[in-house]
Amino acid sequence: MESGRQVFLVDLLERNAAKGHGVITCMAAGNDVIVLGTSKGWVIRHDFGVGDSYDIDLSAGRPGEQSIHRVFIDPGGSHCIATVVGNGGADTFYTHAKWSKPRMLSKLRGLVVNAVAWNRQQITEASTREVILGTDNGQLHEIAVDEKDKKEKYIKFLFELAELPEAFMGLQMETASLSNGTRYYVMAVTPTRLYSFTGIGSLDTVFASYVDRAVHFMELPGEIPNSELHFFIKQRRAIHFAWLSGAGIYHGGLNFGAQQSSPNGDENFVENKALLDYSKLCEGAEAVKPSSLAVSEFHFLVLIGNKVKVVNRISEQIIEELQFDQAQESVSRGIIGLCSDASASLFYAYDQNSIFQVSVNDEGRDMWKVYLDLKEYAAALASCHDAIQRDQVYLEQAEAAFSAKDFLRAASFYAKINYILSFEEITLKFIGVGEQDALRTFLLRKLDNLTKDDKCQITMISTWATELYLDKINRLLLEDDTALENSNSEYQSIIKEFRAFLSDCKDMLDETTTMKLLESYGRVDELVYFASLKEQYEIVVHHYIQQGEAKKALEVLQKPAVPLDLQYKFAPDLIMLDAYETVESWMTTKNLNPRKLIPAMMRYSSEPHAKNETHEVIKYLEFCVHRLLNEDPGVHNLLLSLYAKQEDDGALLRFLQCKFGKGRPNGPEFFYDPKYALRLCLKEKRMRACVHIYSMMSMHEEAVALALQVDPELAMAEADKVEDDEDLRKKLWLMVAKYVVEQEKGTKRENIRKAIAFLKETDGLLKIEDILPFFPDFALIDDFKEAICSSLEDYNKQIEQLKEEMNDATHGADNIRNDISALAQRYAVIDHDEECGVCQRKILTAGGDYRMARGYTSVGPMAPFYVFPCGHAFHAQCLIAHVTRCTNRTQAEYILDLQKQLTLLSGEPKRELNGGLTEEESITSLTPVDKIRSQLDDAIASECPFCGDLMIREISLPFILPEEAHQVTSWEIKPHNIGSQKTLSLAM
């Protein structure tokens, strides 16, 4: 204990507590309730005030003196039991906090109750639930009282000591709820023995089981004024006990859940038992036995004479002696006893006239030292209140391990110290004894204890640990030549540990420094591993390529975090190392640009390959072109060049004939460079391919000329491809014919006939006279007789056909002249009631001024009008107005302009047709007015506005034109209420 700091403080609560009657016994409970047993009755004090006093007339009906023997109060301060003894026997009373007077428990008459065990887990303010009473004749009884019943519900006999009948001096009870019922733990003490009972079920069931089996007990013989049993309660559970016996204070821990499944229920729930000898409490030769005891979490309060000695339960050392300010008349008798309030951690001492409160002031503050002195490090750490205290515990553990040369364990403890010992001092300790492994362990544990804010320290310690690991690895290699082959060797174990360290500390280690360390120690595998952790994939891939492990390198490149640039960078080396795996990897990699792989593919293609070997580059390029639909000209050109170098030109021709851009509007059909393809095919002497390229480039003459060198049939097919240019097609066929004739040169008649038979291949495009110049001069006419006759017959047929066509043309011209003559005499009959198609007025209504013009028909002074073959008739002005309204703006402006010109010119003197002129003369001698009127007629009367295109176009026009948008509201359908009915009307 630190000097000047008291743990237990004594305060005087009240004097003369028993109203002049001497206090015999005292009991405290929660809610500041104290029950005093006096010579005349008992007093219940609430909040240490005056309270209610119950004075029992002990002499009424009872001979002799009567006095309170014991009083007992439950932990909540609601239930109280008291025993009164005298010459007339013993009586037990029960009272509730709400009652005005106590009730006698008649079934307990004659029994002296020495001890009571409350069921702390089940008791309520209204009911005591099961309570165990211990008597002075060695019996145990069960009782239960409900406040509303005003009397006990039942009293049951439970157990009686048969072997050694002694008075029960103390009782305690705990319960635990299990799936198969409630387990009871009961502890009882007599002057010389401590008994323990346990079982599942009800109390009578538990104690009935001890009829056939022995009771577990602990015997400590010896005399003592008052044997007591106390449980210390924390968080509603008892955690340790103390028995004030004749031999000493027997104490230990309580474990109420250790062996709940034991079949016989005989388990001992006491652990860590110890006995405190009274000789440790007194100075001198003879020990004085205590008269009362109270228990706190870490201490015993022992009443010896008029002093209360506070003893540490763990170290068994006296830490304080409490003095009491007693009244003069009480000094001779001394302190009577101690009691405690477990719920408030308060203790009380009492004499005849006074009550003293002993309060606890942080009693566990120095327990870490106590545990530390006893080498109980775990308990010491649990009792520490700050980091300095914990450091002292760790330091003592570390020093003990270091002294025992357990350096690894010492390193772990040293690493936990933060304040009382510096980092440098600890490291020098291990360096001084040459313990590199322990130093490394210390550094690793120190890393675990550092926070993220200590970045600089973390980096330095991690780097130092890395170097220690590398030194350890190299030393193991030097010491054991078989370390590399033995998978269970220490070398392999430290390698795994080192890699785990690199993985954990990858973000803490400086990348450059760590790589230099790994390289300087020659740890290439670990360098690659660390580079992979730091996502330095270039180093990793380069290492695998040097090792010839293309598959591993490709696996690294396949990772999502690896940039595609590394694919392109290492492509040349990888495809040369393993072309198949490389191409397979390329085909599964997304977003790969084949154009950037062209250098690697060209390098691979430049190497010689076996005839039957699968060309991996061609496979990849075909995948790009056909599956990925790649349009890069470089890719197509490379694939074409590889096809051109193959012995079989089938793949080349198929590639050239493919239309890759098919289905794309305005797009090319191919993506390779035709000029490059032509040069390449000429160089590789792929003539059929050259013919196809010439044809594709519309160089048909060159295509046919080259095809004739390869295959005349191919030349004929190329000549037939030209369809839109007859002259060029004939020219191409003449080239083929010349070649055929020259091939069939000779005087033999059959050769000439073969050449002439070629004419049939041209489907009449070439005649005999076209190919005659190609024959030799000495050829006989008889060889061509048949061909010439056939040609003459064809000419005759053509001449006859031309004659027929000329005759048909002559007849057609005559018909046209007749139609023109008939047109001048054409007329139409109009009924007198015919109406205008626009204004609905009669056509033949007399009008104002009349002007004669072409297209107008007049009978008397009436308005000009138009009549159409379909039968519709219109006034001239109505027709003009209708057409200008329905036609487009440009046409309407044109019509209005013609009408305006006609109006201006109509002011000249009227001029009528000369009756002596013919129709042809009148047409050719039109005046300007007549010309304008003719143009107007063409503009408005070229077709009937009701039957022609004008009406058809109007069908697709909307009801409301864009320029009439302001009239939309007039078309809205609006509801109108008429009476109780609703109607819809169209606003027009």
What is the makeup of the main sheet? Answer: 4 strands, antiparallel
Radius of gyration: 63 Å
Beta-strand portion reads 15-25%
- Count of DSSP H/I helices: 33
In the sheet with the most strands, the strands line up as 1-28-27-26
Note poorly predicted spans: 15-20, 47-51, 57-61, 260-266, 848-859, 910-924, 978-988
CA-to-CA gap between the ends?
Answer: 109 Å
CATH topology of one domain: Methylamine Dehydrogenase, Chain H
Please report the first level of CATH classification, the CATH class of one domain.
Answer: Mainly Beta
DSSP E strands, number: 32
Based on helices, strands and strand pairing, what is the structural class? alpha+beta
What does this structure look like?
By secondary structure, this protein is an alpha+beta fold. Among the domains are: 18-277, Methylamine Dehydrogenase, Chain H (7 Propeller); 367-449, no CATH class; 729-826, no CATH class; 833-908 and 922-948, no CATH class. Helices cover 39% and strands 20% of the residues. The strands form nine sheets. Strands 1-28-27-26 form a four-stranded antiparallel beta sheet, with no helix packed on it. A hairpin with a 5-residue loop joins strand 29 (865-867) and strand 30 (873-875). Helix 13 (537-546) runs parallel beside helix 15 and helix 29 (876-886) runs antiparallel to helix 30. The radius of gyration is 63 Å and the shape is elongated. The two termini are 109 Å apart. Residues 20-360 form the Pep3/Vps18 beta-propeller domain. GO terms for molecular function: protein-macromolecule adaptor activity; zinc ion binding. It is found in: Endomembrane system.
